[in-house]
Q: What sequence folds into this?
């Protein structure tokens, strides 16, 4: 599902739910005369139970999606703090190594911000930026190792190497957070319950024998699709409309600019 746009998924869900409601209503109208009043009350009870399942699954999935979105936001701030710490601790190096490390960290920050703006279809561009960032990480580490060999003082070079190690870990954690999505079977189950529930609602409407509640049906369907849109879009950090806030990295980029 991640390969398809959020809008196309929601349009498909809307069409399937409307079709399910109409099919259920048609079946209900055809079987209306064979149902006793007690049977209709049972259908109403089943309808209420399915609507309750709606709320349960929707709340569960929405919570999962928001948690993952929050995790990605925290990962950006964590990486920005790690880069900032490495930049500050580069002050412990000798002047020549210090300037080289700071120049590398500036380019590294630019790359990480650039990678955040790459959309899903441009996967090759993202892979190239990730490879460049990994190369800069290697340069920062090699610089610290060389400084430690020249002056094996843990108060200076040791703290710098620790900061670089944290920077590398933060980049890995952020990349993992971007790949942490709501499991696809959960989304498929959610949509299956919605479509099935729409059919049951239409069936109950057909059994009642009243006029088609077009406005109520459209309102219910559109609200459900809108919530599904938010759930799916929150789970797409490099594709959807709701994007991760990069303010931490932007502010860091400004503060360490030459």
A:
């Amino acid at each position: 599902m991640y390969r398809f746009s959020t809008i196309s998924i929601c349009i498909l869900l809307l069409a399937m739910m409307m079709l399910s409601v109409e099919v259920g209503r048609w079946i209900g109208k055809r079987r209306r005369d064979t149902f006793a009043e007690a049977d209709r009350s049972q259908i109403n009870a089943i309808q209420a139970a399915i609507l309750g399942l709606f709320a349960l699954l929707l709340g569960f999935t929405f919570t999962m999606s928001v948690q993952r979105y929050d995790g990605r936001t925290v990962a950006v701030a964590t990486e920005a703090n790690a880069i900032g710490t490495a930049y500050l601790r580069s002050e412990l190096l000798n002047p020549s190594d210090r300037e080289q490390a700071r120049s590398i960290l500036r380019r590294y920050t630019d790359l990480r911000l650039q990678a955040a703006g790459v959309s899903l279809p441009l996967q090759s561009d993202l892979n190239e930026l990730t490879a460049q960032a990994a190369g800069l990480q290697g340069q920062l580490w090699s610089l610290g190792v060389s400084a430690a060999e020249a002056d094996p003082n843990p108060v200076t070079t040791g703290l710098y190497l620790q900061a670089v190690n944290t920077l590398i870990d933060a980049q890995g954690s952020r990349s993992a957070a971007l790949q942490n999505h709501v499991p696809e079977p959960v989304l498929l189950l959610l949509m299956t319950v919605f479509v099935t529930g729409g059919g049951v609602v239409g069936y109950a409407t057909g059994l009642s024998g009243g006029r088609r509640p077009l406005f109520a049906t459209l309102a219910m369907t559109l609200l459900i699709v809108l919530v599904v849109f938010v759930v799916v879009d929150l789970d797409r950090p490099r594709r959807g409309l709701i994007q991760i806030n990069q303010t931490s990295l932007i502010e860091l980029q400004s503060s360490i600019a030459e």
